[in-house]
Input
Amino acid sequence: MPDVLVSENIAGAEMDKLRKSFDVAYEPALWKAPERLFESIRNVRALIVRNQTRVTSELIAAGKNLQVIARAGVGLDTIDAPAATNAGIVVVYAPEQNSISVAELTIGLILCLARLIPAADRSTRNGQWDRQKFTGVELHGKTLGIVGIGRIGFLTAMRARAFGMEILAHDSFINPDSPLVAESRAKLVTLNELLAQSDFISCHLPETPQTLGMFNFDVFSKMKPSAYFVNTSRGKVVDEAGLIRALKENKIAGAALDVRATEPPPSSELNQMDNVIMTPHTAAFTVEAQDRVVTCVCRDVAAVLNNQPARNFFNFPTPQGSKS
Output
């Protein structure tokens, strides 16, 4: 019987090393077949996923021998972490390994919005040469509002500083004395102040009951009509119907979305809007970030299976109770 089940496309040098040390069932399309997934998990000691596999309480209960669940990424919204914790199963993830890549894409999207790069590219490819149509704005002197100034928000702020931007931040949980605030020279403000004063707003929030649909029409209506919204965090923090309405009514100037409420998303009016940029959840998909993420989770899986403590754990470093 396999020791490790990999239900999505997760590859790299550290995965190759894991396969040399343990019996690994590598089935990158298994997440699409829930019945086979339930059958396959029954005897394995470790499950490694990315963000497509729904690790429900029922799936966790089916894994009678599970010791560790590994998420090759930062968010745990596809994993019932409390159920895993109650079952004594270690949950490991990669909390910081893709942060640089996400911050860099965020800045890239801000630049694309400011300088109308995708639309200008499409126009030029179609044989047009309309320079005046694509007059953009500089980032220098503009205000970037960061909602959620954790690791990624901080790295985004530091890069925005290099462009001469002023930084506002809103975070309900950050300590005002945090180095993330001090080093980024961000001014902590209320959400309403951030919405009213920012030229660009970048969302870096986790998906929680409190953040679901947080960015709705009323919130967008409080932004400057000339402001842009960027989301590289979680799709469900945005009410897409509210965003579409805000764009159609010119409440905001444009938006860039790397994440969506449903992935892949159904067709919507966003697809037809020239002032909207959409990418397929690629923020963490750089060679460097993926190498760090895979290395991180594979090493922690190997540690747990070798009766050693994990380093990047959500709940506890070693299996608890009957799983230990």
About this structure: Residues 287-305 form the longest helix (19 residues). The longest strand covers residues 143-147. DSSP finds twelve helices and twelve strands in the chain. The mean pLDDT is 95.
